[in-house]
Amino acid sequence: MKYLTAMYISLSESLGIYTPDQLYELFTNKQHSMPISRHRATIMQSRVFFFCAIFAVLVPTWSLIDLLFLPGKLWGELLLIRILSGAAFILLAWQARKEASLLRARLLLAGMLSVTPLFYLVSDHWLQAYELSDTEQVVAELYALLPFVMVAGLTLFPLTLRELLAYAAPMLIVVVIAVIPQAKNDIPQAVSTIWLFTLILGVAMFASLNQLRYMLSQVNRASYDVLTGLLTRRAGIEMLDLQYRLTTMSESNLSILYLDLDHFKTVNDVYGHDAGDVVLKTAAQQLCATVRKGDSVIRWGGEEFIVILPTATPDEANDVITRLMKAGLGTRPDGTPVTASIGVAEVQADTTKDWKAMIELADHRMYTAKTGGRARSMGINDTQLLWPECSNAEAIQNPEEVLPATS
For the segment 351-395, what is each residue's pLDDT rounded down to a tens digit? Predict the structure, then answer.
């Protein structure tokens, strides 16, 4: 038991696993963030394209070697399936050049991994039908290496454990079927072949999981702000671009909030940057606790934040702002409440051409709110909402839209 525990600890440390959540991330992709999934899909599709492009050339070209060493009739049969396999690889390579998505990447990898085992099964059936000389038998034995080559290729893909086992299981079945002993003397060779395949699979599993763990750590580091834990500007841009394209295709709503904390510079100047960091962290926590489950919060820069509200109409965006103003963004070191100037933009109501135009419009409205007295939001058609702490004397023209002050 101690040996197994020590082996588990050693394996975990080699993979950089220190928490149950990190272990779960290697087992399945259910907890992977969207930036991680998109990055993984891009890597998988690019490598599928690379492999398929090479195989599309090498598989038919190998027929020249078959022509030199194998019987003419057998060569013709193998040439046919080589051409079909090459065509399949060309089709997969073409599909791999399309926009990356995790579903497409998985299907393309499954297609690539299925072509070679099928080719191996058909070719092995034909090879068994011929009496081959020693030289011909050596060439024929090379076909048996195809499943091993494919399972070794899994080392280049950042796969979860569930994905890797799902891809490897059919290839293992193919190998078992191909080496089923016909006589008692064939049993040792069959066992050694299956053992070799399992050994290579174990190495591929370790390499693939190690690659995935490294990618998770790097993407998380680049995607999440160290101080607040929110999406970074770089990761937020990817999210904005994706959400805008999805909204355009479905002709649905999409709102964004552009927030700038009021008088934040004075906190740093008077109380120091450590106090400013506390204000930023508290404001970020409040934002995450207030927005809807499917919304995304981005630290856009300094004391500026952007909230992405998929499917949210202007009224629903105002509802989020209302909850945020009532919940608050924390307090400053002097005990006064933290407020923000907020600009709102919505894709349908504002008829923006792209997400950049939405950001510019929300930024402009945020600046209008700031110059209009701060502690308020500026939305579509100059709709404003005041922070509860804002006095009624600063109220906007539509007083019914002003939030009541909290006790």
Answer: 888 999 999 999 999 999 999 999 999 998 888 999 886 544 343
According to DSSP, the β-strands at 304-310 and 254-261 are antiparallel
83-111 pLDDT, tens digit per residue, is 999 999 999 999 999 988 999 999 999 99
pTM over 0.70: no
Q: State which amino acid sits at residue 261.
A: L
Which pair of tokens denotes residue 147?
Answer: 């499943």
Long-range contacts formed by 265-268: CB under 8 A, 24+ apart:
267/332, 267/333
**Helix residue ranges, H only, 129-186:** 134-142, 146-153, 161-178
Question: Is the confidence at residue 304, as pLDDT, over 70?
Answer: yes
Q: How far apart are CA 118 and CA 208, in angstroms?
A: 24
CA distance 173 to 166: 12
- Mean pLDDT for 46-58 is 93
Domains within the chain, CATH numbers bracketed? 2-222 (no CATH), 233-401 (3.30.70.270)
- Who contacts 222 (Cβ-Cβ below 8 Å, separation ≥6)? 232, 234, 235
Distance CA 342, CA 258 (A): 5
**C-alpha angle 179/182/184, rounded to 5°?**
105
Q: Spell out a b/e string for 22-49, using b for 16 or more CB atoms within 10 Å of the CB, else e.
A: beebbeebeebbbbbbbbbbebbbebbb
Name the packing angle between helices 102-128 and 72-96 (round to 10°): 180
How far apart are alpha carbons 287 and 363 in whole angstroms? 18
Q: What is the mean pLDDT of residues 253-260?
A: 95
Q: Are 284 and 228 a contacting pair, CB within 8 Å?
A: yes
Selected residue with higher pLDDT from 141 and 167: 167
Q: Choosing from 25, 77, 303, 346, which is the catalytic residue?
A: 303
Active-site annotation holds for 13 = no
CB atoms within 10 A of CB 232: 20
| 172-227 pLDDT per residue, tens | 888 888 777 777 777 888 888 889 889 999 999 889 988 888 888 877 777 888 89
8 Å CB contact between 40 and 213: no
